[in-house]
Design brief:
Blueprint (H helix, E strand, L loop, with lengths): L1 E7 L11 H11 L3 E7 L5 H11 L3 E5 L5 H14 L3 E5 H6 L1 H5 L6 E3 L4 H11 L13 E3 L31 E4 L2 E2 L9 H7 L4 H4 L1 E2 L2 H14 L4 E4 L8 H14 L4 E5 L6 H10 L1 E9 L3 H7 L6 H13 L3 E8 L6 H14 L3 E6 L7 H8 L26 H21 L3 H21 L1
Parallel strand pairs: 1-2, 1-3, 3-4, 4-5, 7-10, 10-11, 11-12, 12-13, 13-14
Antiparallel strand pairs: 5-6, 8-9
Helix pairs in contact: 1-6, 2-3, 10-11, 16-17
């Protein structure tokens, strides 16, 4: 069978392709099936989408969904199925935690919950037997009218998974996406990564990291088959295991030393590790600060690092010659305007090279989603409202939507000010309008 994966751009004409389909496509190809990718740009309508899909002549459509993609994906699949008689399976975080809603929408036949390689192969091989009754009873696969399925154990050993198929990632100029692990051990209440692990019982059961040899072998294959100029590590927290990171830095630094970026938590790094990462080629680290209020971080987000730890780590990172980006969330349930002012104060103390700022959205599957539902903050039609990180969909008792928008604008102004400071005086005024547009666009789609 030929499986076509759709990558749906939801607010702009650019996006990072999902890595899930690249893993699944590799596994399907390993077992004799074919797979390809079709990006659906933001300005592509139903007619053009149907035409583009038809050129692949697929037997099955797959679509990996985040909550941010959901509204446009729902509209597209409904329109596509009106013109094409083809089976559609959805996967990813949104399909995992909102499978009932997804399957109640026109055009979706199956939802893949959790890890997708083995269940997708079983589904494809069942569908390949020919048309007939809907496929039932596959673990991880939920069909229309079915209850949530049992999950099969996580794939083991993870080194036996084939490397991601690079043609599914829409990579250019030798900038590659890379994954070394699955699962996250941290209990952050706003993030679905931990909840994904909890589907399987615990992080101890789901969390796996590839061997150093597997990682280096994949880099070698990438370099042999094309360009390797910059690496974007997609792991939620690259720096979890100090021993693993130290060994990686030595091997990667000796064999490749291609510049790379990663995501880390301040409690998982120290000065020695940052020096090792820099020596191996690390040029950029993104840290989730989320809030400058220790109360919000500790009590609401379950993030226990104190503000001083952020101050220290940001300094150590800069001293190591690594660019640092901070990410912030505003509009969290239980947060007040005073808390957001504390975030701004910490931001100014940290002075990151760049930063992202996002209005809180209650992602299904997260602990804070349940809090919002239990406390009556979440509207009944939340699945019909955009998850754009610019506006809140919640009705919070301590923070109005108008206040959240004012704070969001304040962060925008801070980013404009930072950009203007990096420009010559004679250019700053003329550039301001363009910077406002570019920064607003980048913040909206980051």
């Amino acid at each position: 069978m030929h499986i076509l994966f759709l990558e749906v751009d939801h607010e702009a004409d650019w996006a990072v392709a999902a890595i899930g389909p690249a893993f699944i496509a590799a596994y399907l190809r390993q077992h004799g099936h074919s797979a390809s990718l079709q990006r659906i740009p933001f300005d592509m309508g139903i007619h053009d989408a149907v035409e583009a899909i038809g050129k692949h002549n697929p037997d099955l459509l797959g679509i990996s969904l985040t909550s941010r993609q959901w509204l446009r994906a729902r509209h597209l699949i409904s329109g596509i199925r009106e013109q094409l008689d083809i089976t559609v399976v959805a996967g990813g975080l949104h399909a995992t935690f909102e499978s009932e809603t997804v399957l109640a929408s026109p055009g979706f036949d199956y939802a893949c919950l959790g890890e997708g390689e083995e269940p997708m192969l079983e589904l494809v091989e069942a569908l390949a037997l020919g048309p007939g009754e809907p496929v039932r009873g596959i673990r991880n696969i939920r069909g229309r009218g079915e209850s949530s399925p049992k999950l099969r154990p996580p794939f083991q050993p993870i080194d036996e998974l084939p490397f991601m198929t690079r043609d599914m990632l829409d990579e250019q100029y030798g900038v590659v996406h890379f994954s070394t692990q699955r699962g996250c051990p941290y209990p952050c209440t706003y993030c679905a990564a931990r909840q994904f692990s909890d589907l399987y019982g615990s992080y101890a059961e789901y969390g796996r990291r590839r061997s150093h040899q597997s990682v280096l072998d994949e880099f070698d294959e990438i370099r042999r088959n094309g360009e390797l100029n910059y690496v974007l590590f997609m792991d939620d927290t690259f720096t979890i295991n100090h021993k693993w990171v130290k060994t990686f830095c030595k091997g990667y630094g000796e064999q490749f030393r291609v510049p790379f970026s990663l995501h880390a938590r301040v409690e998982t790094v120290n000065q020695a590790m940052l020096g090792q990462l820099a020596e191996a080629g690390c040029k950029h680290i993104v840290y989730g600060v989320e809030s400058g209020s220790e109360r919000v971080r500790h009590d609401i987000m379950k993030r226990n690092a104190p503000n001083q730890r952020f101050v220290d780590v940001f300094k150590w990172t800069k001293d190591a010659g690594i660019l640092v980006t901070a990410n912030y969330i505003i509009g969290t349930p239980g947060e007040t305007s005073v808390d957001i002012e504390e975030t701004i104060a910490l931001h100014q103390q940290l002075a990151p090279d760049d930063f992202g700022y996002f209005v809180f959205y209650p992602y299904p599957g997260t602990a804070l989603f349940q809090v919002c539902r239990d406390q009556g903050y979440l509207p009944e039609d939340y699945n019909d409202q955009p998850a754009n990180h610019r506006h809140s969909i919640l009705k919070l008792p301590d923070l109005s939507n108008e206040q959240i928008e004012l704070h969001y604008q304040r962060f925008t102004e801070l980013r404009i000010e930072a950009a203007l400071k990096r420009m010559p005086d004679e250019s700053a005024a003329a550039a301001r309008d363009g910077i406002v547009h570019d920064i607003s666009r980048a913040a909206a789609h980051a």
